[in-house]
Amino acid sequence: MSVQKRNNVKVQGSGPATMVFSHGFGCDQNMWRFLAPQCSSRFRTVTFDLVGAGQSEIAAYDPIKYDHLSGYADDLLEVIDEFSMGPVVFVGHSVSAMIGLLAGIRAPALFAGHVMMGPSPCYINDGDYVGGFTREDIDSLLDTLESNYLGWASSMAPAIMGASGQPELAVELTNSFCRTDPDVAKQFARVTFLSDNRADLPKLTAPTLIVQSSDDLIAPVAVGEYMHSHLPNAMLRIVENVGHCPHLSAPCASADAMDEFLATLSFR
């Protein structure tokens, strides 16, 4: 099976570097519709669906391979190898930021920089580390998801999106969650919310932008500050936004932060 078919890869634009966009849990590449087209006037842009999401090839889903974020990092490197030209700026939302982190550690020469939208290296509080959830919170969330996925999606999606002034975005995220194969979603949620990549942060040497919402149920500001202090070459920008998807609910502020970051990079 081709990488293009497996991940429903779309390529637009041209420029001195390639920007690769990767969506978060329960989403698909359409979530980049406000940012990727702006970038395609200056860069080659690549959007794709993680296997099991969107219009990816569900037959390619392997529960063993995708029981760890490293399986998705393998796919990302294959997408980059086949579709990128020049240096790569990786733009990852939520869990995809950590997928990009793993890929960047494995193949640092490929990446000119990383943009992380609402990232979290660990969702569970641990000693002085504030991840936003207790282990009991996460276990309860996963149990509810396991027993009633559609009910969980309908109640959680609006809370995750926030953006009360844009209710259509909550509806969009709810519908996206509900379109995802429940078995895939359940496994991906468990892999996502139980992951811990804190020890990997110091290994990513590429310049990194952290775009953090000022009020985010999933990744509170303390998480962004932690990542800023543990990534060797990081810039933190907090945008005024309620919710976990600033690229959708605060696209102008997110684009401004990205432009500031991109201006610091040198593409040759």
How would you describe this structure to a colleague?
By secondary structure, this protein is α/β, with parallel strands linked by helices. It has one domain (3-262): Rossmann fold (3-Layer(aba) Sandwich). It has helices spanning 3-7, 36-39, 69-83, 95-106, 135-147, 149-161, 167-179, 182-193, 221-230, 246-249, 251-262; strands at residues 10-12, 18-22, 44-48, 88-93, 111-117, 208-215, 234-242. The protein has a seven-stranded mixed sheet with strand order 1-3-2-4-5-6-7, with helices on both faces. Helix 5 packs antiparallel against helix 8. The chain is globular and about 45 Å long.
In short, what is this structure?
Helices cover 42% and strands 16% of the residues. It has a seven-stranded mixed β-sheet with strand order 1-3-2-4-5-6-7, with helices on both faces.
List the domain count as a whole number.
Answer: 1
User: Main sheet, how many strands, which sense, barrel?
Assistant: 7 strands, mixed
In what order do the strands lie side by side in the largest sheet? Answer: 1-3-2-4-5-6-7
Shape: globular
Q: Which bin fits the share of residues in helices?
A: 40-55%
CATH topology: Rossmann fold
Instruction: Report the radius of gyration as a whole number of Å.
Output: 17 Å
Q: Helix and strand succession?
A: HEEHEHEHEHHHHEHEHH
Instruction: Find the count of extended strands (DSSP E, 2+ residues).
Output: 7
CATH architectural name: 3-Layer(aba) Sandwich
Fraction in beta strands: 15-25%
Terminal CA distance reads 33 Å
Instruction: Please report the number of helical segments.
Output: 11
Quaternary status: single chain
Which superfamily, in CATH terms, is the homologous superfamily? Alpha/Beta hydrolase fold, catalytic domain
